[in-house]
From TrEMBL:
It comes from the Bacteria. It comes from Arcobacter roscoffensis. This is YbdK family carboxylate-amine ligase. The keyword ATP-binding applies. The keyword Ligase applies. Keywords: ATP-binding, Ligase, Nucleotide-binding. The lineage of its organism: Bacteria, Pseudomonadati, Campylobacterota, Epsilonproteobacteria, Campylobacterales. One of its GO terms (molecular function) is ligase activity.
Length: 345
């Protein structure tokens, strides 16, 4: 397993975005220097973890690197924040100096004008492509669960969007994003990639921004559906459940859902997070029912421990981060208080 978490850099005084990526890259210790990279904007950075076999080691790494990043931030009166979107209206945003991001900006124009969004990406590796492909197909119907659990972008750029994961709607505007199709073989999927390469639509596999994508050369699945979060307990459960469905996929048959059902479930999760309804085998269920059933199956197949199961059920019973944001705003009428929810402590 590995994971990527995108962070926003804020001025501590006014919570405005600070274009300070270079400061962190230049001053972070040698131990972590190769594990932070630039993002689309200079006020963002991305943590890339090493590969881990143990979930607790991965979470420990996140805690250690964010501790050092927070120490650097405090020396310059900065804060690090991780949520799907910035609640406050942000100005004076600077594009990354990375050539790839400059080309993306030129290609997509206004679609990327409010792209100060942050996500969580989780990678799971497999021994061979067939196992990875089965897990990829199996996972598509579960993506709304992870979207609901991570939703943290109901307020964006000074507006109440009404959409609990507005970040996903920003991404959905892009031609190479959103929920992907099923693939029945390596050849079928590779043909799609080959066409995109040949026509220069993509330069590499990382130019495909599906909610979940398979990387043929590495035999890995990358789950990209989640909003960024700063809650390490929730982070642990989400990553553990991603790994869990990959293992479960090898024991069960894939249920191929109609694309319109997949899209409808994704919409409901983005709109209502943990209060969403879910179409499951032609029946309507709550997203909590579906998630708890998944947890039951993972436990029954000895994929998760008693401790993980209890922690997962607790997270599922809670509000989403977006729901907490709504409650805070209704009490305070202050988007600064909403923005503070995502600050990494």
């Amino acid at each position: 397993m590995g994971a990527e978490l995108e962070l926003r850099i804020l001025n501590a005084d006014d919570l405005n975005c600070a274009n300070e990526y270079d400061y962190f890259k230049e001053n972070i210790s040698a131990r972590f220097k190769d594990n932070i990279t630039s993002e689309f904007l200079q006020c963002m950075l991305e943590i890339n973890t090493p590969v881990f076999n143990n979930l607790s080691d991965l979470i420990k790494y996140f805690k250690e690197i964010t501790l050092e990043l927070n120490s650097l931030a405090s020396k310059k009166n900065l804060l690090l924040q991780s949520s799907g979107s910035s609640a406050l209206k942000q100005e004076h945003l600077e594009l990354s100096s990375n050539k790839r991001y400059q080309e993306l900006s030129n290609e997509h124009k206004i679609l990327l004008d409010d792209f100060s969004i942050c996500g969580l990406h989780v990678h799971v590796g497999f021994k061979n492509f067939d196992k990875a492909l089965k897990a990829y197909n199996f996972s598509l119907s579960y993506m709304p669960i992870f979207l609901a659990l991570s939703a943290s972008s109901v307020y964006s750029n000074g507006q109440d969007t009404g959409i609990h994961s507005y970040r996903t709607k920003v991404f959905d505007r892009l031609p190479k994003a959103s929920i992907p199709e099923y693939f029945t073989s390596y050849t079928q999927m590779k043909n799609v990639y080959n066409v995109l390469y040949k026509t220069e639509v993509i330069q590499s596999e990382k130019d495909v921004w599906w909610d979940v994508r398979i990387q043929p050369s590495f035999k890995t699945i990358e789950f990209r559906v989640c909003d960024a979060i700063n809650d390490f307990d929730r982070l642990e459960i989400i990553i553990g459940l991603f790994r869990g469905i990959c293992k479960l996929s090898q024991l069960k048959e894939v249920s191929f859902e109609p694309m319109q059902v997949l899209k409808q479930n994704m919409w409901k999760a983005s709109r209502y997070s943990m209060n969403a309804n879910f179409i499951c085998k032609s029946q309507q269920k709550t997203i909590r029912e579906v998630t708890n059933k998944l947890i039951d199956e993972l436990y029954e197949h000895h994929i998760i421990s008693d401790e993980f199961m209890d922690k997962a059920r607790e997270i599922v019973s809670k509000n989403s981060i977006a729901q907490d944001m709504i409650e805070i705003y209704e009490k305070t009428n202050d988007l600064r208080e909403v923005e503070k929810i995502g600050v990494i402590k």
